[in-house]
C-alpha cells in the first residue's frame, strides 16, 4: 500500500526514556476510513505512540506520518489534520461548554463568528445542547468526554486519536462515548483508538494491533484475534467428582474439540461457538442425566487470554491484581 | 457537518497575538465565571492590611511616620510577590488536566500558551492592585506623590509581577500536579515576608536583615514608598539607598534567568 493512502504510518518507531524503551521498532499502518484499535496493557507503549502521532513528543528514531505529513518535519500540517482526545477530559472546568468550544474554535483560527457557529453544530452533534451554557464542573464524566470529543472535532479532522477514551467512566458514560465515536466513524473519520479493554476494541474497531513492550505483536481483525485465543468457553463445576465423566459426555455434544477437566476444582470446560444454544443444551443435558452442579457459566476471552497466547506472559496488571486477591 | 476550512492568510505574527488574546480572554472569563477567584487572591493581603493597621499597628514603631502608611505599600509589593503562585497553580492545573497537551496538539501559535498566561496574569495583578488600593484609601492611606510618581509606582509593582510570571511558569511545569503547586506557599511565604514589607530590615538581626534587604520584594516596596511619599526608614547600605534603581533592575535579572528556564522547560515537554 502506498504511504499516501494511509491515515497513520509508523515505521520502526523508537522512543527511549533513559534506559527504558517505550517504543522499540513500532510499526503500524492505518488506512483511511478504518477504526484501528491499539490494544495492550499499561506501559506497553500505546500512549507513547499516540503522543508521537499527535506531535506532543518527538521520536528518537524511525518515521511517523499522519495524514501524509511527517510528524517531526511538518508538525503544523499534522496538527491541522488531527483531533486528539486523551485519557483525561482536557477541557477547562471553570468555563462553560460553549466558552470552551468557542475558545478552541478561535485557537483553530476559525474566527469568532465561525467558532460560535461551529460550537452550535457540535453541541447538536454530541447531544450537549442543554448543557452548553452550564459550567463543565457540573458535567458528568460521559458529558465531559463528549465535550472533549467535540473539541477534537472542531476542524472536522480526517484522523482522530482516542487515547483510552472511556477509562474511568461508568457503563453509562462508556456507552455515551461509544455512540458518539460510532457517529463520527459513520461520517468517515479515521479513528486510532487505544484501549486496555478487549470488548471496547471489539465493539469499535475494524482491526486491532496488539502492542507489548513497545512493539506490535499481532495485527488482525477482532474475529481472527479472538479465534487465536479460542473464543467463548463453557464451564461446568460438578458437585461430585464422580459425576465428571458424565458431565464431559454432555459437554462434548455441543463443544468443539475435547472438553478439558480439572478434578481438583471438579471443573469441565470447553470451547463453544453458539453461546446461548450451548448453555441451554448443556443445562438440559445435565438435568436429564441427573448431575448436580455447583455452577455453570460462559466466559469470554479476555485481553489477558490474548496476551497469554501471544506473548506467553500475563499482563503486568493481572499479576498485580492476583497479588491483591491473594493478599 | 460543515467542513471547517482553516484560515491561513495572516502571518504567524498575527496569530501569535490573536491566539495570545484568546488565552487572555479565557483568563478574564474566570473572573466572570468564578468571582471568588479575586477573593482567594486578595484574602491574605486584605486580612494583613486590617490586622496590621488595626490590631498590631499601634504597637509598631518603625522610627518615624505612621505604620499604616509604611505597611500598605509593602502589602502591594507582597501581593505582587505572591502572584507567582497563581501563575504556577494555573500552569500546573492545565498540565495535569491535559489542557496543555490539547493546546500543543492544535495548529495555534505555540507561544500563546505562555504569553497568554503572562498577559492575563499581569492584567489580574492590575485588578488586584485596584481593589487593594481602594481598600487602602478607605482605611486612610494616601499617596503624597505626584500623579506621575503614583502611576510609576504602580507600574513598578506590575514590573515585579511580570518578572515573576517566568518563575511561576517554570515552577508550574516543574511540579508534578496541582496539589504540589499549592505547596509552593512554603516558598512564597518567606519570599514575601523576609523583606521590608512589614518591618525595616535594619530592625532585624544582622544576617536576616541582609537577606531581607537584598530581597527583590524589598527594593520594589521601598521604591514605591519613595514614589508615594510614604515613610521610608532605611539604613545607609547601598542596596537600600538605590531602591528605585534596583526595583527596575531586579525584575530584569529575574526575567533573564527564569524566562530561558521556563521556555526550556516548556520545550522539554516534547522530549
Strand order of the largest sheet of chain A: 6-7-8-3-9-10
Count of helical stretches of chain A: 12
Number of helices of chain B: 12
Radius of gyration of chain A: 24 Å
Distance between the termini of chain A: 51 Å
The biggest sheet of chain A amounts to: 6 strands, mixed
What share of the residues of chain A lie within helices?
25-40%
Query: How confident overall, as mean pLDDT of chain B?
Result: 89
Structure description:
The complex is a heterodimer of chains A (327) and B (271). Chain A has 327 residues and is of the alpha/beta class. Chain A contains 12 helices and 14 strands. Chain A is elongated. Chain B is mainly α. Chain B has one domain (23-270). Helix content of chain B is 73%, strand content 0%. Chain B contains 12 helices and no strands. Chain B has helices spanning 12-33, 36-55, 67-96, 99-104, 111-138, 147-174, 178-182, 185-193, 206-214, 216-228, 238-241, 243-267. The radius of gyration of chain B is 20 Å and the shape is elongated. Chain B starts with 11 loop residues before the first helix and ends with a helix. The relative contact order of chain B is 0.14.
Task: Describe the structure using short key phrases.
heterodimer, A: 327 residues, alpha/beta, Rossmann fold, Alpha-Beta Plaits, 2 domains, 6-stranded mixed sheet, 4-stranded antiparallel sheet, B: 271 residues, mainly alpha, 12 helices, 73% helix, 0% strand, elongated
What's the quick description here?
The complex is a heterodimer of chains A (327) and B (271). Chain A has helices at 46-53, 75-81, 97-107, 112-125, 141-152, 171-186, 198-204, 222-228, 244-252, 275-289, 303-311, 316-326, and strands spanning 6-17, 20-31, 35-39, 61-66, 69-70, 82-85, 159-163, 190-195, 207-212, 215-220, 232-238, 256-262, 267-272, 293-299. With 327 residues, chain A is an alpha/beta fold.
